[in-house]
Amino acid sequence: MRRPEACCPPHDSVLDRVNIPAIMSKPAISVSPDRDIRDGARRVSRFNRSRAPVVSDGEVAGFVSLTAPVIEDMAAKRG
User: Fold this and answer.
1) Among 33, 36, 29, 35, which residue's Cα sits nearest to residue 50?
2) Who's near 52: CB < 8 A, 6+ residues apart?
3) CATH number, span 26-79
4) Nearest to residue 44, comparing CAs of 20, 68, 78?
5) Helices 37-46 and 69-78 sit at what angle, rounded to 10 degrees?
6) Domain residue spans in the chain?
7) Mean pLDDT, residues 44-63
8) Are 29 and 47 in contact (CB under 8 A)?
9) Which in 10, 37, 42, 54 has the greatest CB count within 10 A?
């Protein structure tokens, strides 16, 4: 198991001065697990993202990616 200090840069680095909102993609998007895969793919694409978290009952249940095999297959059939 990796020690926490092995994965983190030393203190007083640029990361100590930057917070998450300053570097995150905006707007934050997510998809619902009951959403149709085509609608989810359109939402991810519309916001120029390659992936989005799947949120169920306020918890991250997983991620959907435009590079997922199902979506690649849909694009190939549509193309």
Assistant:
1) 29
2) 29, 30, 31, 40, 43, 44, 63, 64
3) 3.10.580.10
4) 68
5) 90
6) 26-79
7) 92
8) yes
9) 54
Cβ atoms of 28 and 7 closer than 8 Å: no
- C-alpha angle with apex 73: 67 to 79, nearest 5 degrees? 105
Q: For 4-39, what is each residue's pLDDT tens digit?
A: 555 665 666 777 778 888 888 899 999 999 988 888
What's the whole-number average pLDDT of the chain? 80
pLDDT reported for residue 71: 64
Burial class (CB within 10 angstroms; exposed 0-12, middle 13-18, buried 19+) of 53: middle
Q: Which residues contact 33 (CB under 8 A, 6 or more apart)?
A: 54, 56, 61, 62
Q: What pTM, to 2 d.p., does this model score?
A: 0.62
